[in-house]
Design goal:
The structure is a single chain. The chain is of the alpha/beta class and about 230 residues long. The protein folds into two domains: about 5-30 and about 100-225, HAD superfamily/HAD-like (Rossmann fold), CATH 3.40.50; about 35-100. The protein has helices at about 35-50, 55-70, 80-85, 90-95, 105-115, 130-140, 150-155, 160-170, 185-195, and strands at about 20-25, 120-125, 145-150, 175-180, 195-200, 220. α1 crosses α2 (about 55-70).
Length: about 230
């Protein structure tokens, strides 16, 4: 049995020890297939057309530049990518909204959290324009007490400054906090800050197989965390 397939054997979360929950958005609550479609296919295709180059060349150009910016604010900025490509990034996102949707179990999980005594917030690196579009389509923001974007602080979740700013804006006890995300480097940053429960989502894109487990406790999707939540 692979590590990924044994993810459900992780000991259950002790919800009685949790007061505050921070949730990533893309790949944790919403299907990352949408973002992958936009950035792997739609944007490169538009770039290829605009610059009159082969699709593969445009895809490689975009992919290499994105890799060089991984974990930085420009990586997550619609404005940056609009300037870099000369394309209307927001319009390209709007063209693919049929791919926007919740991951399995996420909506039921959010409903339980909303009806619990937990303080729940979305903590995302997503551009505010991207969040607003997804909220319009899913009502995601209606389930939580607040939305925090790294763009509010001008520093990504990968950096300790984000967590310091988050704690100032929404005071929380790291020892009684749960954070869910699909990105190991972000989970590492939260753990470094002192958040006790940092859980990975292993199946952020419904069209792809689950990822392998890392050092963090992990579940395939949010639905696997509902046991004991009330």
């Amino acid at each position: 049995m692979s590590e990924a397939s044994s993810a459900t054997q992780t000991p259950p979360l002790d919800w009685d020890s949790i007061d505050t929950v921070f949730l990533d958005m893309d790949g944790t609550l919403l299907d990352l297939n949408y973002d992958n479609q936009v950035w792997s296919h739609i944007v490169p295709a538009a770039l290829a057309q605009a610059r009159q180059m082969p699709f593969d060349q445009a895809q490689q150009l975009l992919g290499q530049h994105m890799s060089s910016l991984l974990g930085t604010m420009p990586f997550y900025s619609f404005s940056y990518w609009s300037e870099f490509t000369g394309l209307d990034i927001m319009q390209l996102h709007q063209s693919a909204t049929s791919h926007v949707g919740y991951l399995p179990g996420a909506k039921d999980f959010l409903t339980l959290l909303k009806n619990s005594n937990k303080q729940t917030y979305i903590a995302t690196n997503a551009d505010r324009k991207g969040f607003d579009l997804k909220h319009q389509l899913t009502g995601l923001g209606d389930y939580v007490q607040g939305i925090v974007s790294s763009h509010d602080f001008a520093v990504p979740k990968e950096q300790q400054e984000f967590w310091l700013a988050l704690q100032q804006q929404h005071p929380f006890d790291p020892a009684r906090t749960l954070f869910l995300d699909d990105t190991p480097r972000v989970l590492d940053a939260a753990a470094k800050f002192g958040i006790r429960e940092n859980w990975a989502i292993l199946n952020p894109d419904s069209r792809k197989p689950p990822r392998e487990r890392t050092v963090h406790p992990a579940v395939k999707d949010c639905g696997e965390l509902m046991t004991g939540l009330s």
